[in-house]
């Protein structure tokens, strides 16, 4: 039983397996991974007050920030990565009242890409895009 849990946690998806997942499933994974990158970035910058961390993270994790990042990165994405973003963007989902629909759609696309890269083990590429995106939003 314990080995089964370990195997599931360490599972790397093939490109075909990841492509076959619902884009919202990729975005679900991507949301958590993206949030962890942002949290690590903020904590490593010396912020230790949890309230301040939460306030500072908003510009990175809100739909408008993620949308801005997605749009800025699009030209540097491979065809496959652009396809993942488009699939996430075009998938029907509930849009919160506080978010603009277009921003929420692109944010979902970005999260789908992050989830895809994470599940397929493309850590270097994921980190490269996160560094570029965080630099953009930090300006």
In the CATH scheme, what's the topology name?
Ribonuclease iii, N-terminal Endonuclease Domain, Chain A
Tell me what the CATH architecture is.
Orthogonal Bundle
State mean pLDDT (0 to 100 scale): 94
Rg from Cα: 15 Å
Distance between the termini: 48 Å
Output the CATH class name: Mainly Alpha
The biggest beta sheet is recorded as: none
How many individual helices? 8
The topology string of helices and strands comes to: HHHHHHHH
Secondary structure class reads mainly alpha
Pfam families: Ribonuclease_3
Subcellular location: Cytoplasm
Organism: Eubacterium callanderi
Function: Involved in correct processing of both the 5' and 3' ends of 23S rRNA precursor. Processes 30S rRNA precursor transcript even in absence of ribonuclease 3 (Rnc); Rnc processes 30S rRNA into smaller rRNA precursors.
Structure in words:
This protein has 139 residues and is mainly α. The chain has one domain (21-138): Ribonuclease iii, N-terminal Endonuclease Domain, Chain A (Orthogonal Bundle). Helices cover 77% and strands 0% of the residues. The chain has helices at 2-10, 15-20, 23-44, 50-61, 63-73, 79-90, 101-119, 123-138. Helix 3 packs across helix 4 (50-61). This is Mini-ribonuclease 3. Keywords: Cytoplasm, Endonuclease, Hydrolase, Magnesium, Nuclease, Ribosome biogenesis, RNA-binding, rRNA processing, rRNA-binding.
């Amino acid at each position: 039983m314990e080995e089964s849990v370990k195997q599931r946690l360490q599972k790397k998806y093939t490109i075909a397996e990841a492509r076959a997942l619902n884009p919202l499933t990729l975005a679900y994974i991507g949301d958590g991974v993206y949030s962890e990158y942002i949290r690590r970035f903020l904590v490593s910058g010396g912020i230790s007050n949890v309230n301040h961390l939460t306030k500072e993270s908003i510009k990175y994790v809100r739909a408008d920030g993620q949308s801005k990042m997605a749009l800025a990165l699009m030209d540097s994405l491979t065809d496959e990565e652009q396809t993942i973003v488009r699939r996430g963007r075009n998938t029907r989902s509930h849009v919160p009242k506080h978010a603009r629909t277009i921003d929420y759609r692109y944010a979902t696309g970005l999260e789908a890409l992050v989830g895809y890269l994470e599940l397929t083990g493309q850590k270097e590429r994921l980190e490269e895009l996160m560094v570029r995106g965080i630099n953009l939003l930090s300006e």
